[in-house]
TrEMBL record:
<dbReference type="InterPro" id="IPR017907">
    <property type="entry name" value="Znf_RING_CS"/>
</dbReference>
<dbReference type="Pfam" id="PF13445">
    <property type="entry name" value="zf-RING_UBOX"/>
</dbReference>
<feature type="domain" description="RING-type">
    <location>
        <begin position="92"/>
        <end position="133"/>
    </location>
</feature>
<dbReference type="GO" id="GO:0006302">
    <property type="term" value="P:double-strand break repair"/>
</dbReference>
<keyword id="KW-0227">DNA damage</keyword>
<protein>
    <recommendedName>
        <fullName>RING-type E3 ubiquitin transferase</fullName>
        <ecNumber>2.3.2.27</ecNumber>
    </recommendedName>
</protein>
<keyword id="KW-0479">Metal-binding</keyword>
<keyword id="KW-0808">Transferase</keyword>
<dbReference type="GO" id="GO:0031491">
    <property type="term" value="F:nucleosome binding"/>
</dbReference>
<dbReference type="GO" id="GO:0035861">
    <property type="term" value="C:site of double-strand break"/>
</dbReference>
<dbReference type="GO" id="GO:0008270">
    <property type="term" value="F:zinc ion binding"/>
</dbReference>
<keyword id="KW-0863">Zinc-finger</keyword>
<dbReference type="GO" id="GO:0005634">
    <property type="term" value="C:nucleus"/>
</dbReference>
<keyword id="KW-0833">Ubl conjugation pathway</keyword>
<keyword id="KW-0862">Zinc</keyword>
<dbReference type="InterPro" id="IPR001841">
    <property type="entry name" value="Znf_RING"/>
</dbReference>
<dbReference type="InterPro" id="IPR013083">
    <property type="entry name" value="Znf_RING/FYVE/PHD"/>
</dbReference>
Amino acid sequence: MPSPATEEKRLKELESKLKQGKRKAQLLLRESNFKNITLEDILQHWNGSALKRNTDFFKSVEAVYQLEEKKRVKQKELDRTRSENIPDGLECGVCLDWLADSRLLVCGHSFCRNCLYRLYDAAENNIICPMCRIATIGQVDQLNRNYSVEAAIQSCRK
Ligand SMILES: [Zn+2]
Ligand SMILES: [Zn+2]
């Protein structure tokens, strides 16, 4: 698997290609009969069928559309590579991203504060840990912050 740095470079290349493509499409758009709609509008409803009208403008829109698709896929791949590189214990088991403003449950597991809000059961006034099913009584904001996790994340992400 290519390294995140290589992937990031490829994404940047795609982005600059996309920018050029958009500039070209925008120029052609201004010369076309569709002066009142934006390129973004066209892209949103684009399905390639208009390609039959084989004009430079439609070709340029198709090119931009293809590039955006590619970029979306690449971005997703990159996000996945990044999350695979989160060290054990610093990843939130709910959102699978870096722990953000982590709070410690009585069982010893930590999750993002925002993720815990979603786990909080107001009727029971507790949070069931999704990793070990042990209940922590009380609300999210009563939980202690996990300072050691926060420090470890800071030094990892420098
Ligand atoms: Zn989370
Ligand atoms: Zn737990």
